[in-house]
């Protein structure tokens, strides 16, 4: 199988991470959680059809985890459906918010009616629309990173061995280099031969 559209090829680009460190720090009044991972490739070819389940062994702790890899067709289909779902959810929520605002601002009768509606009725409905828009946007991001590699729910050690896309891994590495550079932890070349 050749490299397919949108980066889904015969070998998954997703990587399984092993959590090496996690830190919780206070930033103002909020908690900041920092997690560091060592990433390892899945190393399995995709099946021609359906799913393939394999046992993957962590290169750090030796834990074996069941991993399910989808075929190119199924991985692409899942990406498309997640993306469409997120797009529809986001557009519906935003269009209802915009339409409600436009009608309330242009119609005196609707504006008078909205003045009589208690806040405890309007606030939950507005929050539902905002949460729907945020959830839709999150689905769009998940669809962008989906590579068809899964660790089944309920698997022990799943929390310390997450699946990250190649894009996420590269972003984490850039962020780690940037933070190391800021704190002066970058390696310098030695002048000794």
Shape: extended
Q: Please, what is the average pLDDT?
A: 79
Helix content: 40-55%
Q: How many DSSP H or I helices?
A: 4
Rounded radius of gyration (Å):
23 Å
Q: What is the SS-derived class?
A: alpha+beta
What is the spatial order of strands in the main beta sheet? 2-1-6
> Separation of termini?
48 Å
Strand content: 15-25%
Low-confidence stretches: 1-5, 188-193
The description of the largest β-sheet is: 3 strands, antiparallel
Q: How many strands in all?
A: 6
| Tally of separate domains | 1
H and E order: EEEEHHHEEH
What does this structure look like?
It is a single chain. With 193 residues, the protein is an alpha+beta fold. It has one domain (5-169). The chain is built from 4 helices and 6 strands, in the order E-E-E-E-H-H-H-E-E-H. The strands form 2 sheets. Strands 2-1-6 form a 3-stranded antiparallel β-sheet. A hairpin with a 2-residue loop joins strand 1 and strand 2 (30-41). Helix 1 packs across helix 2 (108-116) and helix 1 (72-106) packs antiparallel against helix 3. The longest helix has 35 residues, at 72-106. It starts with 14 loop residues before the first strand and ends in an 11-residue tail after the last helix.
């Amino acid at each position: 199988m050749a490299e397919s559209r949108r980066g889904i090829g015969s070998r998954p680009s997703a990587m399984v991470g092993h959590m090496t460190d996690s830190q919780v720090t206070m930033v103002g009044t909020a908690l900041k959680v920092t997690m560091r991972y060592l990433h390892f490739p899945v190393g399995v070819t995709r099946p021609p059809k359906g799913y393939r389940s394999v046992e993957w062994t962590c290169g750090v702790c030796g834990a074996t985890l069941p991993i399910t890899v989808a075929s190119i067709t199924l991985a692409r289909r899942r990406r498309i459906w997640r993306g469409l779902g997120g797009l529809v959810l986001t557009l519906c929520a935003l269009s209802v918010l915009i339409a409600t605002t436009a009608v309330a601002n242009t119609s005196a009768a609707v504006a008078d009616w909205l003045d009589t509606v208690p806040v405890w009725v309007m606030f939950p409905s507005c929050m539902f629309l905002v949460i729907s828009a945020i959830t839709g946007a999150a689905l769009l991001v998940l669809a962008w990173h989906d590579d068809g590699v899964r660790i089944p729910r309920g698997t022990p050690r799943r929390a310390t061995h997450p699946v990250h896309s190649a894009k996420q891994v590269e972003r984490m590495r850039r962020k780690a280099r940037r933070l190391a550079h800021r704190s002066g932890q970058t390696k310098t070349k030695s002048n000794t031969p």
